[in-house]
Amino acid sequence: MAWNRKLLRVNLTTGTCTAEPLNMEWAQDYLGSRGLATKYFVSEVDPKVDPLSPDNKMIMSTGPLTGTMASTGGRYTVVTKGPLTGAIACSNSGGFFGAEMKFAGWDMIIFEGRSPKPVYLYLENDKAELKDASHLWGTSCWHTEETIKHELQDPLVRVSSIGLAGENQVLFGCIVNDLHRAAGRSGVGAVMGSKNLKAVALRGTKGVSGVKDMKAFMKITAEKKKVLADNAVTGQGLPKFGTQVLMNVINEMGALPTRNHRDVQFEDAGKISAEAMHEKRPSDNKPHLVTNAACFGCTIACGRISEIDKGHFTVVNKPEYWGASGGLEYEAAWALGAANGVGDLEALQYANLLCNEQGMDPISFGATVGAVMELYEMGVLTKEQIGIDAPFGSAEALARLAEMTARGEGFGKEIGEGSKRLCTRYGHPELSMTVKGQEFPAYDSRAIQGMGLTYATSNRGACHLRSYTVASEVLGIPVKTDPLTTDGKPELVKAFQDATAVFDSAGICVFTSFAWTVADVQPQIEAACEGDWSMDKLNLMGERIWNMERQFNNAAGLTRKDDDLPPRLKTEPAKTGPAKGLVNGIDKMLPEYYELRGWTQEGVPTPETLSRLGL
C-alpha cells in the first residue's frame, strides 16, 4: 500500500500518543522500514546514549511493500541502539504484525522515554492507548499474546511482546510476534523491557490503499511470484526443508562452526538436520516436523512447525510444550546444537521453544553456551559456579542453561550478558566468537572467506543477513565464487550489503534474494510508490543507508578495531574439510573494502563519499 504517510509517536514517560505526518522527503531518500526508521533514529538520538536509558528510542517500522500483494510483504523492523553491541540495532521480523500496522493506517511507531509502570500499546486503526500491563509483567510472550487477545475479545489482534528475557535485561532479549516470529538480534527486547513496555497490540481494518498504479502492481507482483516459484531454492528447497536445508551442505563444506569454533565439522550434523526433522522417531513413530508455514503474503513458506517428542526428558512432565509450535531454523539448530556439540534434536527443540516463549535470541544464547562449555572443559568454570556439569555435547546442560537464562536464575544471569562480557570476566576474551559483542551465526569464515568480511563489517555486529555471501560462495547465486579465496570478496560483500539494505527497506523478506535481484524489486517499488525509482536511485539508496548506519556507529565510538575477527579464526587453521589448513584473510580484505567504500583506512566515510550520498 505504499506509504500511509503517518507515524505514531508514543511518549512512555508522559503516557501520550501523538500522530505525525511521515517525512515524505526522507521517504524518497530512504524508502521505509530499515532505511527510513534509521534516518529518524539517527536524527533524534545521541549516538553516545546508554541503550537501556530512557533517552534511547525504539522504532517499529514497515516498508512501502509491507501489507501489499508483493510476495513476502509481511516484514517489519525494530531500530534502536543495541545493548549487546553499543551499535545501531536493526532487527527484522515476519509473521503478520507488520502488515497489521499498515492495515491500521500507520507506517511507523516511535517509542521514547520510560513508563513509570508496565504498559502495553493498543492501536486499533486511529485509536491509540497505553493500557496497564502490571498483570502481564513476569509472564511469557505466549501468555501475554493469549491474554491480550482474550482481554480485547478479538482473536485477530496481532501482538509483539517481550518475555522474561526482555524484562530481565538479557542483552540478547528479542521481541516476539505471532508466537514464534522475532525481531531477534542485538537485544532489542532488552530495550523494550527497559522502557517498561510489555507489548504492542495492533488491529487494522482499513485494508490496502495508495498504490500508485494498481494494475501495473498486480501484473508485476504476479510475474515476480512466478520467478520465486520456479527457483530451486525458493520454490523447492525452502518450502520443503526450510533454512535447515543448509545443515548437511555447510557441514560437508567444512564450514559448520562446532564446539565454539574449535572444529569446522560436526559428526552429528545429520541428527539435527532438515532431513532428520522429516524422519519418524522410534519413540512414537511420528516425524519431528508437522508442516511448513508462511508469514503474511509469502509464497515461499520456509517456516517450520514442529512437535516435540512427549517422552523426551526435557518435557516429560511439561505438557505445555507438547503441542505443535515454531520449529528449528538453521541458525537456531546450529547455535543450540553444533556450537555446543549437542546432537539431540529434541533437546534443541526444547531450548528453541524456551527462546520463543521467553523472547531470547537463540544464536547469541547458543553461542554463549558454547563459550561456557569450553571454559568448563578448560577448568576455568566449575560445576559449583555454573550449577551443573557443562561439557560439550551435554543435552542436559543445554536444557538447564536455557531455563536458567530465560528466567534470570543463577549462572543464567551471566549467560544473559552474552559471551563477550562473560569470557572477559573469566580472563579469556579470545574465546568469545563475536564481532562488536554480537555472536557469530552458523558459518565458519575459514571455509567461507567472504563471511569473515561480512561479519567484521556488519553495522549491527556479527550478522549473516547483512551480506549473505553464502549465496554466491556456496549456492552460486547470482554468480559462483570460490569460498576458499579472498579474491573479489570486498566487491561481493559491498554489493550484497547495499542490495540487502534495499530489500529490507522495501518491507520484503531477504530470502527473496535467492531468486530476485534489486532489478526484480525495482519495478514493484516503481508501481507502488510515487516518485522515480530507477535502478541508479535504489543502488545509491542502499549505499546511503549503509553509510548512515556506519556514521552512527563511528559517532558512538566504534572504530576500525571493531571491524575484526576473534584470534581463533585468524590464527587457528581449519582442522578438516575443504578448508583444512586455512585461516580467514580478513587483514587482506578489510583495507580493500574500505577503499571500495570510499572510507579512510580508519573506516571513516570521506567527505567526498558523504557528499556523493547526500549525507
Summarize the structure in words.
The mean pLDDT is 97. With 615 residues, the chain is an alpha+beta fold. The chain is built from 25 helices and 17 strands. It starts with 5 loop residues before the first strand and ends with a helix. The strands form 4 sheets. The chain has a 6-stranded mixed sheet with strand order 2-1-6-3-4-5, with helices on both faces. It has a 6-stranded mixed sheet with strand order 8-7-12-9-10-11. A 3-stranded antiparallel sheet has the order 13-14-15, with helices on one face. Strand 10 and strand 11 form a beta hairpin.
Tally of alpha and pi helices: 25
* Cα distance spanning the termini: 28 Å
Give the amount of beta strand, in percent.
5-15%
Mean pLDDT: 97
Q: If you compute it from the alpha carbons, what radius of gyration comes out, rounded to the nearest whole angstrom?
A: 22 Å
Shape: globular
Question: Biggest sheet: strands side by side, in what order?
Answer: 2-1-6-3-4-5
Major sheet summary line = 6 strands, mixed
Total strands: the figure is 17
Secondary structure: helix percent: 25-40%
User: Unreliable runs, pLDDT <50, ≥5 residues?
Assistant: none
Structural class: alpha+beta
Secondary structure layout:
Elements: E1 6-11, E2 16-21, H1 24-30, H2 33-44, E3 58-62, E4 76-81, E5 88-93, H3 97-103, E6 108-112, E7 119-124, E8 127-132, H4 141-151, E9 158-161, H5 164-167, E10 175-177, E11 181-183, H6 188-194, E12 197-203, H7 214-230, H8 232-241, H9 246-252, H10 274-278, E13 289-293, E14 303-306, E15 325-326, H11 330-336, H12 345-358, H13 362-378, H14 383-386, H15 395-407, H16 412-415, H17 419-425, E16 434-435, E17 438-439, H18 449-457, H19 470-473, H20 489-506, H21 518-528, H22 535-556, H23 567-571, H24 586-597, H25 607-613
Parallel strand pairs: 1-6, 7-12
Antiparallel strand pairs: 1-2, 3-4, 3-6, 4-5, 7-8, 9-10, 9-12, 10-11, 13-14, 14-15, 16-17
Helix pairs in contact: 1-2, 2-20, 2-22, 7-21, 11-13, 12-15, 13-17, 18-20, 20-22, 20-24
